[in-house]
Structure formats: structure tokens, C-alpha cells
Amino acid sequence: MAYPSVIAEAATNNLDALTAPGAPRTRDGQFRNPARMHKMGLLKGLSIMVRMLFDKPADTVPRAAIPVHAMTQQQLLAAPDRTLYRLGHSTVLLKLDGGFWLTDPVFSERASPMQWAGPKRFHQPPISMQDLPLLKGIILSHDHYDHLDHAAVMALAPKTEVFITPLGVGDRLIAWGIPANKVRQLGWWQSTQVDGIRLLATPTQHFSGRSLTDRNKTLWASFVIEDREARIFFSGDSGYFDGFKEIGRRYGPFDLTMVETGAYDPQWPDVHMQPEESLQAHIDLRGKVMLPIHNGTFDLSLHPWHDPFSRIAGLAAERRLPLATPEIGMPMSIMAPLETVAQQQWWAPLVAQEAAARAAVA
To answer: Is this structure's pTM higher than 0.90?
Structure first.
């Protein structure tokens, strides 16, 4: 498979894999992580799958409605530059230098290859795809179903100028019918510019694949996003690794880090971070304010739905580190997030309601 980028040969040590441009691959064409992964045996994998399907705790899904602020196109067009809107999970809308950028857009009812089964949304998107304004670009971190939504990509393509993807993910889009001249594929540490916005792909510790036969055939990445005034980090999905320190050394400090905080479990430590690790990643990146993402929309693990919010808020408070947790659809200034986002913990009343309901039943 040919890519419009230089791919580094498989590195002989972790440092080379972390710092070389491109992305290391094994001889069978699969991409690999900079750090060695723990191998999960077949029996353990099957046991996790059975529990995820048939024995999940009841509190992985909220009982009460998550607050959502409806958005309009008129509101977005009138918003000042460097305004951010969290639409759910890892989908974030950014207004930078007059243009709109969308990360990992997922608008489907389920994060699944079929819409009759799989993780179902806790809430509807705060704006429809039809009502979104023209998009300067869409940034895709990897090809998992909770990040790469085929229906959303196809619906948004006519109003999107460019798609920025890791290596191989762009080939998927082209195979789906997206014009090749709209797609820019990047390896780690490679960058591109779109009307003054610089986008640079950086390493993550994760994996890829949309079926049983294509594991790690496409790359996964985080992104540094820069306009004239703001520097933003978008983590995509990742386990904790030394790469965050390297990214922070090269490109920090960041005005805002959007860091994965959700869908974690001790049984898969390599590919998703515990909240303690998410906060450490933010520190490694030399971030000023952290926005926890990858939570609050889909049931993808065994922890309570509110656990990512409660734990990261407590940890940030202990360390006296600024944390931004806007409600879905609420506008937030990238440069002054704590001045524009109410500081109450919006999930706390919902958790209290659920606790009261359980007590009443007991």
C-alpha cells in the first residue's frame, strides 16, 4: 500500500520509534507502537468480550438525561475565533481564524459497524450535520468506529474542504468515494498547513482496525493544532507512554490539551489511560488547561459513566491544575476556558439522582 509520506523502517529501539518521522511498520505491513504492548491471551480476550456483552454493571449508562445545549449555524458563524464546542465523545468543533475544524466526527446512533447493535449514544448531538457550517477540515485520529463514522464522513464530505488523517486512514476515505485531492495523510511528526492552520501528527500508543482481518493496517495518531495565537493538542486514543513528554518538549506549552479520559480498564492498560495517567499526560505535554474527552457519550468500558469526570476533577483539584468540563454544546474560549465555562460539576446532580433511585429501590 503506497502512502504520500515517507515511512520509517522498523526502529531497533523505542527512542528511534518515538522520534523518527513517519511510522514504524513490521515486515507484514502492520504499524506498531513505540513501546512494547502486553499480549492478551485468547481466553482473557473472550472473557472480557463476554462480560462486555452480558455482564456489564448497570451504572455504565446514565439513567437521567445528560445536559445538552442546542447549537445553531447562526450562533457558530457569529462566534469569535478560538471558540470550542464539545459535541460528544471525541467530537469537538473548533473555530480557528474564521474556519471550522471538526475532530473525529461521530453522529451515528451507535459506535458500531451495525446500527442495530453496539454502544448506543447517551445523548443526541447538539447540532445536526445538515446545520453545521462549511468546514475547513476534519481531523481523524484513527479508524475505530467511535472515531471514524462512515455515515458522518459521507454526509459531511460535500461541505468539508480537507480531511487530515494518519497514514492509511485516508485510503479508506478514498475507497469510500472521498476525492483524493481532499485527503492529506500524515505519518508521525509530519505536518501540513491549511490557510495558515498548522496540523502535525504525533505518536500515540494505540491500535487500529475495523474488522477481524485488518488490525494495525492503518496508523493512529494525535495532533498538534496551531493557528496564529493558539496551540492545541488533540490526543485521539492512547495508553500512557513517554511520547507525551517528547511532544511536550518539542511543541509545548499548549494553551489547551484535549486528552482522552474514558473507556479505560486495568485489563487494557496499553491503549487507554486511567484518569491519573491522563492528567500526567497533560502535565507531560506542558498544557495550561485540560479538556477531558472520550467520555460522556458511549458505553465502552466497565466503569460508571461518570467515573472519568469525577476522578479527573478530583485529581485536578488535588494538584490545583485547571480543568475545563463544558456541558455538551456549550461554547468555550480556547484562550480563556475557565472564564467562559461554568465551574460546577454538571454530572454531580445526575449521580446524586441515580444514587437516590438505587437507595429507594433497596
So the answer is: yes
